[in-house]
Specification:
This protein has seven helices and nine strands, in the order αβαββαβββββαβααα. The protein is an alpha+beta fold. The strands form three sheets. A four-stranded antiparallel beta sheet has the order 1-6-2-3, sandwiched between helices. It has a three-stranded antiparallel beta sheet with strand order 7-8-9. α2 runs antiparallel to α3. About 20% of the residues are buried.
Length: about 200
Amino acid sequence: MNVHEFQAKSLFAQFGVPVPRGKEITSPDAATAWANELNTPVFVVKAQIHAGGRGKAGGVKITKDKAAVAGLAKELIGKTLVTHQTGPKGRVVHRLLMEEGANIAKELYLSILVDRDTGWATFIASTEGGMEIEEVAQKTPEKIIKEALILLSDSRAIMVGMSRSRSDCKALNRLSSIHSYSCSGTCIGFLWKRTLP
């Protein structure tokens, strides 16, 4: 099941997970209109294809110039991005996510997937961020935390493994929201109905 970043962030927001303000964009005019509404010091324009490595392939653009977003949208829409996950033919960009920039102090990686061996929903986490998570898993597997998520309280093991305090309620509440989202029928139904090319 493939879900674009803008779709995932919309779903996260519905479950109380903080995400940057952003919107799906399909034209330069829509980019200009959203930039005017967003009115942020930093704009991030991201190609939406079902593959990782978009940034390295030129599919993520950052600007402080509101007037530049239409040009960035025009540059990306219709472009074929070739990444390590697309194969040599690449994937054509049909839509973008345009969102406010964020002041990133530290990147962490967190995903929920179904473990093929156990059938359990499992948190995969790392303090090393997600840009090169496959490389991290290969070269330094000890930096990857894997925790079967049978009960909501199991998310505390992830917090401890990522050197967060057990009393860090804000982060634990975010994990709780992500867990609630992953277990909801809404999530399953949305993914089934809304997969886009």
